[in-house]
Design brief:
The chain has 250 residues and is of the alpha+beta class. The chain has one domain (2-248): q2cbj1_9rhob like domain (Jelly Rolls, Sandwich). The protein has helices at 16-23, 30-37, 41-45, 111-114, 118-134; strands at 2-3, 25-28, 67-77, 80-83, 139-149, 169-178, 180-182, 185-189, 195-198, 206-210, 214-218, 221-223, 232-241. Strands 2-10-6-13-5-3-4 form a seven-stranded antiparallel sheet. A four-stranded mixed sheet has the order 1-9-8-11, with no helix packed on it. 37% of the residues are buried.
Length: 250
């Protein structure tokens, strides 16, 4: 496995589709996201404050208090984004051994956030990337706002361990890091020996994953200083799946 402190950022944006086909993942810095998603730095910055009021995750089986989140669902079809009625998040045990099989009804994302111009631009761009990878079709999108904090001294971004999500593509946006160490991202081939380790730190950089081909996880975070209690790691995770939402169990 290759280890780099800085993520292996894709430099030639015209090769994004080829890189995803070749290795199953790619990392883009914030300036690349701005260019490809038609989102200015200022427009993405309007989204960041919506991570300050996330409610606690009430479904953590390990008893932790370190995760806050919101969740909403959308359909991206061609050039249109439609928000769907609020629904529970569900995964089979096959993909989430810790929380699979549970209907987890989180609070929905703020209407003010999803009305920001940057929001549909992000989803439309991801739909375009996924269609280039998997074929042109409607995409059933689940969006998760996460804040992992160090309230208990340690926070676990992926308490279920290395996993796939059971979708077609996953996008993990780094929104903010403050007062923490750790949170290393690890990407492994699902059916091979190769992998890479790196730390996402730049706001609005993104890791794109072909979920059928790679397994991913993030290591725990800890406070930079022993007496700090306000450290956190904020991410936006967006999954795209053909045919239906996972909760429809097809």
């Amino acid at each position: 496995m290759t280890t780099t402190f800085s993520p292996p950022v894709l430099l030639d944006l015209s090769t994004l589709d080829d890189v995803l086909l070749l290795q199953g993942y790619s990392v883009l810095n914030a300036s690349s996201v701005h260019a490809l998603a038609a989102c200015s730095p200022e427009s993405l910055a309007t989204l960041t404050p919506y991570w300050t009021d996330l409610p606690p995750d009430q479904f953590l089986k390990d008893g932790g208090r370190y995760r806050r989140r919101r969740h909403s669902c959308f359909v991206v079809d061609g050039g249109q984004v439609t928000q769907m009625p609020h629904r529970a998040h569900w995964q089979p045990l096959e993909y989430n051994a810790l929380h699979g099989g549970m209907e987890r009804l989180f609070e929905s994302m703020s209407p003010d956030l999803v009305s920001q111009p940057a929001w549909p631009n992000l989803l439309l761009w991801l739909g375009h990337v996924c269609s280039a990878l998997k074929g042109d079709k409607p995409w059933f999108v689940e969006a998760h706002q996460f804040r992992i904090d160090t309230t208990d001294g340690i926070g676990r971004p992926t308490p279920e361990g290395a996993h796939r999500d059971g979708v077609d593509m996953v996008a993990v946006f780094m929104v903010a890091r403050a007062g923490v160490k750790g949170g290393e991202t690890r990407v492994f081939e699902a059916d091979g020996p190769n992998g890479q380790r790196f730390t996402l730190s730049e706001p609005w950089s993104v890791l794109l994953l072909d979920d059928a081909r790679v397994i991913h996880e993030s290591t725990p975070i800890q406070p930079l200083t022993p007496d700090a209690t306000d450290g956190h790691r904020d991410t936006l995770v967006i999954t795209l799946r053909a045919a239906a939402f996972q909760a429809d169990r097809i």
